[in-house]
Design brief:
By secondary structure, this protein is mostly helical. It has helices at 25-34, 45-51, 62-77, 82-92, 96-110, 115-121, 126-138, 141-197, 204-237, 241-251, 257-278, 283-290, 297-311, 316-321, 328-340, 343-399; strands at residues 2-9, 15-22, 38-44. It has 3 domains: 2-51, Ubiquitin-like (UB roll) (Roll), CATH 3.10.20; 62-152, Up-down Bundle (Receptor-associated Protein); 154-400, Up-down Bundle (Receptor-associated Protein), CATH 1.20.81. A 3-stranded antiparallel β-sheet has the order 2-1-3. Helix 8 runs parallel beside helix 16 (343-399).
């Protein structure tokens, strides 16, 4: 089948745009006519994409990928053929870009390709593609899709917690800085100028605030330029693997933060590897894919060395322990899982434990960060208030 983009008029004369799937243009026009639509334009999506007329790229977002996998598991478990399942999923997508992506997957499957290859052509994550391929080979596609949906939901939940732990304090800090900059560059100079003309020596705190205010007003533009240049320089430097490795090793030396980062990375790696092994992916192939889940280069190097150790007959626990960053409890549990022949189950248990640990630590950080930020804002605003009130008090004494 082919996807056609159409522009038509409904019974009330209102313009309507959309997409429809049909074997030919004639059948597409007939289906639209059956919906009481008068077709004005009708053309295949592929042709529009080649000519550049169709805006937007066909893709699925993170939330849509979870929904896709959940519906795939539900409909295939209910006995619906894969082609009809993909058509139903595509019709239920809200965005045109996501509908085009699912229709493209369906078309490739209809032409004889595997679902895993179709997903790979749409740039799905390698973990998803390899687990779907294992599910197709073992005949457990619905079970694999269910596990994948659960995996992606847990990833999204952890990412949301990380975002909440950093976004809320950042918003408070940014708002406080904007308020203080406004006071220092607009309010304080006007107020203090009045006191300075009245004569008398200004308090030390007021002089310090005035010096900062003069500096910000004189050099504020250059500070903005320097900040933007520093950000661009950082992004340019991070294109180098060597610079990213130096940054990551520096992060892993910061107390408290290093333990949190390693915990997050261990949970993500364990979840990915456990899901791949439980889905029937061979160990070396699973390690190759799971190593892509490391975001810190030193840990990625440990994963690559562990895979080479597995190739040479070494146990996973010993290979990971040799790197030095992986928590001791995780390597001990991995050793127990390897000895009992339940490595995939143990990996998922490790992931559950460390994900809960990360959640607890993030909540604790938020609990501590909120009052600290409020205190910092109170101290800053209080200092500005004192810089204004002290000259007022001295003027009252001079008047008396």
């Amino acid at each position: 089948m082919t996807i056609f983009a159409y522009e038509a008029l409904d019974a009330r004369g209102r313009r309507k745009k959309g997409e429809i799937e049909a074997d030919s243009e004639r059948l597409a026009r007939q289906r639209l006519k059956g919906q009481q639509l008068v077709v004005r334009k009708l053309s295949p999506i592929e042709r529009q994409q080649r000519s550049g007329e169709q805006g937007g790229k066909a893709y699925l977002g993170a939330t849509e990928t979870v929904l896709f996998l959940q519906q795939l598991a539900t409909l295939t478990e209910a006995g619906m053929p894969l082609i009809d399942t993909l058509a139903a999923i595509a019709e239920g997508m809200g965005r045109q870009a996501s509908r085009r992506a699912v229709f493209a997957i369906r078309k490739q499957v209809l032409e004889g390709g595997s679902l895993a290859e179709a997903l790979r052509s749409q740039h799905f994550d390698e973990v998803i593609c390899n687990m779907i391929a294992a599910g197709e080979e073992t005949g457990q596609l619905e079970a694999v899709a269910t596990r994948l949906a659960a995996l992606l939901e847990l990833r999204q939940q952890l990412n949301q917690e990380l975002l909440s732990a950093t976004l809320y304090p950042a918003i408070i800090l940014a708002f406080g800085m904007v308020v203080m900059l406004f006071l220092m560059t607009v309010v304080v100079p006007k107020m203090v100028a009045v006191f300075a003309r009245a004569g008398g020596d200004l308090p030390t705190l007021t002089k310090v605030v005035m010096s900062l205010s003069d500096f910000l007003r004189a050099q504020g533009g250059w500070l903005i330029v320097a900040t933007a240049a520093a950000i661009l320089l950082y992004k340019w430097l991070m294109r180098s693997d060597a610079m990213r490795e130096r940054r990551d090793r520096w992060l892993l030396r910061i107390p408290l933060l290093n333990h949190l980062l390693v915990t997050i990375e261990t949970a993500r790696f364990s979840r990915t590897l456990g899901m791949l092994l439980s889905g029937g992916v061979p160990m070396l192939a699973a390690m190759l894919i799971a190593n892509q889940s490391w975001s810190l280069i030193p840990l990625k190097q440990i994963g690559a060395a562990a895979r080479e150790g597995l190739r040479e007959g070494e146990s996973l626990a010993e290979a990971l322990k040799r790197g030095g960053y992986i928590p001791t409890m995780a390597t001990q549990l991995l050793s127990v899982g390897e000895q009992s022949g339940q490595l995939d189950t143990m990996l998922l248990r490790i992931a559950d434990h460390y994900e809960k640990d990360v959640s607890r630590k993030l909540k604790r950080m938020l609990t501590v960060a909120e009052p600290l930020l409020v205190m910092l804002m109170a101290v800053g605003v209080g200092a500005l208030a004192m810089a204004i009130l002290l000259p007022i008090a001295e003027m009252n004494q001079l008047v008396r």
